[in-house]
Amino acid sequence: MTSENRLKAVIKNWFITEPLLFSVITTHNLVLNDSLTVPMRTGRHCIEFSELLTNELSETELTDYLKIETYRILLKHPYARQPYKANPTALQLASDVILSKYFTPPSGIETAGVVYLKSQAWRFSTLDFPLGKRWADTEELRFFQRNLQVDRNTGLLKTVDDLTFEQWYKKLLFLIRETSAGGGEASGAGALSDYDLAAITESSELWQEDENAQNQINDKIKKAEIEEGWGETGGNLQRTLEGDVDFSFDYRRALTRFRANIVSVNRRLTRMKPSRRYGFSAMGSRYERKADILIAVDVSGSITDESFARFYHAIKNFFFLRIIENIDLIFFDVNLKNTKPVKFTKNLKLSEITGRGGTSFQPPIDFFLENKNKYSGMIIFTDGEGEVPKLNGNNSGPASILWILDSRLTYEKSRWWIQGLPGNWATFLP
Fold first, then answer.
1. pTM for the whole thing?
2. What does the buried/exposed string (b/e) look like for 17-29 if buried means 16 or more CB atoms within 10 Å of the residue's CB?
3. β-pair type (324-332, 291-298)
C-alpha cells in the first residue's frame, strides 16, 4: 500500500476518534514530494510527504508524523503573521518546542527541531561557556539553562517558562545566531550542522501569513467547542486553542450598529437648510435622533430564568441610550403571547410572561413586517432554537433586525442562518 493510501486510512479513522483533527486536516491536500529530506511538512493548504521516507514507517510512526503536522495546523504556526525577514529555522524550532508541550509521540519519533534542541540541552548542561564568555552570568544564559533540559526518566525535552510561539521565536533566533558555525567560542559541540540546518529550514519553507487559513482553522475550533467534538485532543491543547480563538463579542457594539441603521432610516430632507457640500443648490438633511423599535422576547421552554434576567438588563441598557422614543415588547413561543405590544417600563417582569412552549420565529417576524411602518427596527432575544423564518413577499424590504442570543455557544450555532437573512445580523449576551 502506498503512503498516500495509508495516510488516507489514518484520516478516515480520525472521523470517529479525532473529529477536530479530521475536520482540520480535510482542509488540506495530501501532496507527494519525494525531493524532501524530511518525512512530512505543512503549508499553503497542503501536507507534503515523501514516499521514500514514509514508506518504511510503522503505522504508529506514520500516524504520529501526521498528527504532529495536524497539531501544527491547529496552532496556526504555518499561517501566523511572520516577523520582518523571518528566519525559517527559528520559526520551525519555535513550533517544535511548543508542540513538545502538547504531544508526546507514542512511537518515540522526534522532529529535526526537537533533536537539535535536545543537543542544545546537552550543551547548556556540560559546557562552561555555552553561549561564549560574553554571555556568561546573563539572563539569556539562565533562560536556556532553565528551559532546555532533557528529562532523565523519559528522555523528553523539558521546558519551564510558558512562552508564546512569537516569544520562543525571538529566543531561538538569538540561540541560532550565537551557536551556529562562525559564532565564536560558542561554536563547535552542539552547533547546527549543515544537515540539521537544511532539514529544519526545509520544514517551514511553505509557511506564509494567511488570514483566510487562520479564520478557517478558528471556525473548526469553534465548531469543536460547540459540538464538544474534541476527541482525544483535549487537556492543555484544548485550553490553548480556546484561548487563541477570539470568541468575544460585545453586544453593545451590535446595538451601536443597530442604532446607526435605524437613525439613518429617519433621515429627512430639509428645504431651507443647505447641503454642506453643495450649498443651496441641494437640500440638506436632518436625522431624527429618536426611533420606535419592536423587541420580541422568546418565552419558550428552553429559555432559563437567568436568560430572562440578562435580557431585561440589556433592554434597560438600550432604553437608556436615549435614542429610542418607544420600545414595544411582544412575547412568543410557537405563537405570539400578546396580540397587542406592551410598552417597556422599568418595573416590567419578563419572568411573569406566560409561555414555555416550543419556538417559532415566524409569528414575531410576520408581526414586524406587517407593522414595519411603525418601527425603525426590531430586536429578537432568543436562544436560537427554532426553524429558520421566511422573509417573503413585498413586506420583506430592507428590514433591520438584530438577533441577540443568550450565550456565545447559541450564537455560534445560529449566526450562520441569521446572517443569511437580508437585513439581519446577530450578537450575544456576555
1. 0.61
2. ebbbbbbbbeebe
3. parallel
Please classify residue 12 by burial: count the beta carbons closer than 10 Å to its beta carbon, then call 0-12 exposed, 13-18 middle and 19+ buried. Answer: exposed
* pLDDT tens track for 319-359: 655 556 678 889 998 889 887 888 877 666 655 566 567 88
* Helix segments in 138-271, DSSP class H: 139-147, 165-179, 194-203, 211-227, 235-244, 251-265
For residues 357 and 175, which has the higher predicted lDDT (pLDDT)?
A: 175
Q: How long is the chain? A: 430
Interhelix angle 88-102/194-203, nearest 10 degrees: 80
* Span between the terminal Cα atoms of the chain, in Å: 52
Q: What is the CA radius of gyration of the chain?
A: 29
- 282, 286, 293, 371: which is closest to 329 by C-alpha? 293
pLDDT tens across 23-73, in order? 999 999 999 999 999 999 999 999 999 999 999 999 999 999 999 999 999
Rounded Cα gap, residues 386 and 293, in angstroms: 23
Amino acid at 5: N
From 36, 35, 37, 29, select the one nearest 7 (Cα to Cα): 29
Q: What's the grid cell of residue 273?
A: 437648510
Q: Among residues 21, 27, 57, 59, which one has the least CA distance to residue 39? A: 57
